[in-house]
Amino acid sequence: MLSSTLSSFSSGSKVAVIGATGGIGKAFVEALQHCKQVETIYCFSRSGQWHGQPHKIIDHSMDLLDEKSIVAAAKTVTDTLDMVIVATGVLHENDSLKPEKSIRDFQSTHFSHVFAVNTTGPAMVARYFLPKMNRTSSKSVFTVLSARVGSISDNQLGGWYAYRASKAALNMIIKNLSIEMGRKNKSAIMVSLHPGTVDSHLSSPFQAAVPEGKLFAPDYAAGQLLAVIDGLTQKDSGSLIAWDGETIPF
Description:
By secondary structure, the protein is of the alpha/beta class. It has helices at about 25-35, 65-75, 110-130, 160-185, 220-230; strands at about 15-20, 40-45, 55-60, 85, 140-145, 190-195, 195-200, 215, 240, 245-250. Helix content is about 30%, strand content about 20%.
């Protein structure tokens, strides 16, 4: 678990976590609850109910696939935000959606759904939450969970077409946002984060192939990523950064 400080953020910081009841999203919230700089955590999920200690929590519903729901969720935020974490994503869903091994597996409905969750949804969150980011502090951070497999230059294995492409597109959106926000909000930092392989529903069918010591518990991954966030500076804006601080080339 992360230590009880985020030294680069001011006391009284306000944070929003989208996907707050998922494996790593919930771990983010639990770690932030122990951070003395954080005063309020807005937790958004489809259920709108935080199943944990209520300390610092304000919970609301959000459907990432419904723009009106995102608009309504943003309106519930009455504070200026110092950090937004979009901890959502889809790789597979039961037997109906699986990552493609070859072009024979292509299905347009699968591509549309994966892009809606992994790319369009976070982009719409950015549209309605970035205007709420702090403009007077020395640092505010908007971050999304991406993946190393979204790096085009790092791709040596192929496969997982929709997931890889959706995360590559998400990285491009973050890069674009970093340029735009660099003009509008000098303190804002936009980053994609790679959490490694986390022991969660998303990775569960593929864990047998994970090298020993590389399957991370959600609380460990969240702590590592919050430490990365704590160390970010403006020069990191627009980057894809791994759990260990490594900058991953696009």
